[in-house]
Amino acid sequence: MDIMPIKVVIFGSIPEASLILWAGLLLMGVKPQTRKIVIAGILQGISVYFIRRYVDFGIHTFVQIIVFIIYTYFIMDVKLIVAILSIIVSSVIVTLIEGSLLIFMDINLAYLWSVDWMRLLLLLPHEIVLGLIIYIGYKKDISLQNEFGWLDKIVS
């Protein structure tokens, strides 16, 4: 279990959740309202604080994803399959980037969690990638829905 400092929640978890949601929805071909993204990001950031505080390590990831899918479904007003796919796709992107950094940079997770600025620093690489996905998604009108015809049948 992890007690996250409030500054990590405010400057880390909330922006991260907002970017994960935004990028995931754009990849599914949904252009969300910024206000709803912010609301869902704040709720998810607060939820992450409590989930990580009271749920065992490892299990907390699955609980966070389920809660995030529920927020996405109700707040963003999208189909359940769109909520599921958008959160899972973005979470996989984040996991691949974070996991690669931890492996290749040989970062000790216990040390990382003990230093607030290190926790925030670890978020930057995947937040930059998610930001690029959002930027390119809007600029070039690119989404997985546009690229894969079969996905259109699922999410539309």
From TrEMBL:
The chain crosses the membrane at residues 6-27, 57-74, 81-105, 117-138. Keywords: Membrane, Transmembrane, Transmembrane helix. This is Uncharacterized protein. It comes from Crassaminicella thermophila.
